[in-house]
């Protein structure tokens, strides 16, 4: 059985039949000469689904150009095409505006309906045209520069060079020689072979100066900073009389920070390693991970060090990573990653964008002043950039707690049972900008940490057991077991 077409052109059907069907309500007129049997579907949706076919009828052989080509569709209800027809065509949801130019050229991509989409080199040339009325159809300079930066990020400098070469070839055909001169200056500045004054946007200028950054991540850091500033400050100050209760806190901080990353020891093994220097058989690298973490978090002076500017952030990251991962030469301790890394569906910041993104991200967080809010921000900044081959999660939590230690506030430990909640909260920020989940998880973890008595292993580990802190996160989810605050456990002394 042949399915009924979603649109019918009057040139393909008997006019009287179309008129009767429209009167009976079995067809709806979408625009002049265009009908549809989808009487209950909004006309804008029907048009959008069949736009190329309609343009192929109204503008045979047209080329989608200008801003429309960059987005491969209408922008702000307007679609520009290269076609000799003079008058625009108004359709539900979109106006198709013709501009009589040169028709398709070599490199343009064919679309359904016998029309074309301008090639990327042609799109760049067209969008650099500043003739009369350009603002309604072409991209602004900062948009074009952001686009060029994206091209470098996706295709590399070699890919950008190929686009420039193709633009040079087709510019005379399109009468775009002056636009090519502008494009060549911008690309030359990007490649470092021409004066950087040819570019103006912060994003492309940073690349031209040798410090490109991940613009999407920096926008996310900006949004996180704004969100954190909207929260009333939550303060959990340290009590000077509770020094004994915090005596073993760094041990458990190092233990859990490694455990949730997959470096798993029993508490007895970890204690023997930290306090008696007993290295478990066959696991020297794992042992160094725990020892390196402990050496950092147990150093009161080190944990009070907060980066004062973006340059100090970069230096402190490299220094702490060298200590943290010194037992694993294969992950290049103290060096930023040289290969891309990912976790599941999350692809982290590209290696060549790491330093620039860290610097820009740090600057985004300058306005965040509450110690807890800064702790959340710094943790996410390091975790989201993922600047190293390994050790990123542990390092992120070290920077998080350094903000709190420097302010004499309670630290945050992420116990095993909270692992999945913590990781899901991170992913929800990355993919959905859901800041509430991350704030909530870290706030609860801090309150839990502040209530645990770390004065001795016996006391601390009883609290860990009573609050489910040591439970496997996946098993706990299946059984409906959650981390609870020590203050809610009916035991004397909590």
What does it look like?
This protein starts with 7 loop residues before the first strand and ends in a 15-residue tail after the last helix. Strand 2 and strand 3 (34-36) form a beta hairpin. It has helices spanning 15-24, 43-49, 51-58, 66-71, 120-127, 141-174, 177-191, 202-208, 215-229, 249-259, 267-276, 284-297, 310-324, 354-364, 371-385, 392-406, 419-432, 435-451, 457-466, 473-479, and strands at residues 8-9, 28-31, 34-36, 63-64, 78-82, 89-91, 94-99, 109-111, 115-117, 342-343, 346-347. The chain is α+β, with helices and mostly antiparallel strands. Helix 5 crosses helix 6 and helix 9 (215-229) packs parallel to helix 14. The mean pLDDT is 93. It is built from 20 helices and 11 strands. 50% of the residues lie in helices and 7% in strands. It is elongated, with a radius of gyration of 30 Å. It has 3 domains: 8-118, no CATH class; 141-208, no CATH class; 215-488, Fido-like domain (Fic-like fold, Orthogonal Bundle), CATH 1.10.3290.10. The strands form 3 sheets. Strands 6-7-5-4-9-8 form a 6-stranded mixed beta sheet.
Structural key phrases:
494 residues, alpha+beta, Fic-like fold, six-stranded mixed sheet, three-stranded antiparallel sheet, 11 strands, elongated
Shape: elongated
Our count of domains comes out at 3
Count of extended strands:
11
Q: Please, what is the oligomeric state?
A: single chain
Give the uncertain stretches in residue-range form.
none
> How much of the polypeptide forms β-strand, as a percent range?
5-15%
Q: For the terminal residues, how far apart are their CA atoms? A: 74 Å
CATH class category name of the largest domain: Mainly Alpha
Mean pLDDT: 93
Rg value: 30 Å
Q: Please give the order of strands in the largest beta sheet.
A: 6-7-5-4-9-8
Helix share bin: 40-55%
């Amino acid at each position: 059985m042949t399915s009924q077409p979603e649109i019918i052109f009057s040139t393909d059907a008997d006019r009287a039949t179309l008129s009767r069907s429209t009167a009976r309500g079995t067809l709806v007129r979408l625009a002049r000469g265009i009908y549809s049997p989808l009487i209950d579907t909004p006309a804008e949706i029907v048009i959008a689904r069949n736009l190329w076919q309609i343009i192929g009828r109204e503008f045979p052989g047209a080329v989608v150009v200008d801003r429309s080509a960059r987005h491969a569709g209408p922008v702000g209800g307007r679609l520009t095409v290269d076609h000799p027809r003079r008058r625009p065509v108004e359709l539900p949801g979109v106006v198709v505006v013709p501009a009589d130019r040169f028709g398709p050229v070599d490199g343009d991509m064919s679309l359904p309906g016998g029309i074309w989409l301008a090639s990327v080199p042609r799109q760049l040339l067209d969008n650099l045209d500043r003739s009369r009325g350009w603002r309604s159809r072409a991209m602004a300079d900062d948009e074009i520069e952001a686009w060029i930066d994206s091209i470098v990020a996706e295709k590399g400098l070699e890919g950008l060079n190929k686009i420039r070469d193709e633009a040079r070839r087709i510019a005379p055909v399109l009468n775009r020689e002056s636009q090519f001169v502008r494009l060549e200056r911008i690309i030359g500045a990007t490649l470092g072979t021409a004066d950087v004054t040819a570019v103006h946007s912060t994003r492309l200028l940073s690349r031209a100066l040798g410090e490109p950054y991940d613009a999407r991540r920096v926008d996310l850091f900006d949004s996180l900073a704004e969100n954190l500033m909207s929260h009333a400050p939550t303060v959990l100050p340290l009590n000077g009389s509770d020094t004994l209760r915090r005596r073993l806190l760094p041990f458990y901080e190092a233990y859990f920070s490694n455990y949730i990353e997959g470096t798993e020891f029993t508490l007895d093994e970890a204690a023997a390693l930290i306090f008696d220097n007993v290295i478990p058989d066959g696991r020297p690298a794992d042992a160094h991970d725990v020892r390196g973490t402990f050496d950092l978090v147990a150093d009161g002076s080190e944990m009070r060090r907060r980066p004062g500017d973006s340059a100090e952030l970069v230096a402190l990251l490299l220094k702490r990573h060298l200590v943290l991962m010194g037992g694993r030469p294969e992950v290049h301790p103290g060096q930023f990653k040289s290969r891309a890394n990912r976790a599941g569906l999350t692809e982290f910041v590209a290696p060549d964008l790491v330093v620039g993104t860290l610097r820009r991200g740090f600057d985004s967080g300058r306005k965040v002043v509450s110690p807890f809010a800064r702790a959340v921000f710094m943790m996410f900044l390091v975790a989201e950039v993922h600047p190293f081959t390994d050790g990123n999660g542990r390092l992120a939590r070290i920077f998080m707690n350094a903000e709190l230690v420097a302010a004499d506030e309670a630290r945050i430990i992420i116990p095993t049972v909270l692992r999945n909640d913590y990781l899901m909260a991170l992913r929800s920020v990355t993919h959905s900008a859901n800041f509430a989940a991350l704030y909530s998880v870290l706030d609860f973890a801090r309150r839990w940490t502040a209530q645990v008595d770390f004065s001795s292993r016996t006391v601390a580990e009883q609290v860990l057991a009573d609050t489910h802190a040591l439970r496997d996160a996946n098993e706990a989810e299946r059984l409906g077991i959650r981390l609870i605050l020590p203050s809610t456990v009916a035991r004397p002394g909590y």
